[in-house]
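Morning, I've got a small favour to ask if you have a moment. I've been staring at a protein lately and its backbone has me curious. You're getting the sequence in one-letter code plus the fold written as tokens. I've dropped the whole record in just underneath, so have a look:
=====
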Amino acid sequence: MSNHLLKGKRGIIFGALNNQSIAWKVAERAHEEGATFVLTNAPIAMRMGEINELAAKTGSQVIAADATKIEDLENLVTQAQEILGGKIDFVLHSIGMSPNVRKGKHYTENDYNYYGQTMDVSAMSLHKTLATLYKHDAMNEWGSVVALSYIAAQRIFPDYNDMADAKSLLESIARSFGYHYGIKKKVRVNTISQSPTVTTAGQGIKGFTEFINFSEQMSPLGNASAIACADYCISMFSDLTKYVTMQNLFHDGGFSNTGVTQQVIERFGDQ
């Protein structure tokens, strides 16, 4: 059911690959809430995914852009404003990739060229996106930028590898750029630290199924789903959260503040 929370708002949504993607769910919900937006992903991801199906469903246009390349981002920001007929009100950054994870490298033996790629794609791309929007004065006042993170930025999850470092940097960029963008244009910048969620990217991490099962038992409310995350993103894009900025917001069923649950204790009772 729509509450028209984003009626009249314009956006850019990065990272929708298929219907498992959180970005895909955000696009569907943004459309339901009255927003217009463009969809974007790297050219290689677009060839692998089903983004054109989402575009048809939401009446959106797709603009190919490598978020690590300034020239691609400048073209994206310019075209988006032309297509949508004005400045941007919201941006979703849902981008993450680690060659070290894909190649099965152990954290202590990471390839540093891969490490640099992880940082560029998964974190520095947020800075580049914000810097491009800032330079071109492309965001409306009280606009909202949300990037998706994970609690491995604060706590060790061994097989999350260098993605944990990337998420730490991502959250720092949101705070630092959020300060400058808030002063300059009253634009909000936040990260949402989501429960482990079944997505194409997440399934590439060793032990991911165990991650999800453990988190489910450690979260008083259980794991937050992709659609629940989309709902949270919509609230962050709306005018209902105009004074929330520079925050890392945990959306994880209480996992981040739980030391242990009775359910987990009982699993070790007979040992």
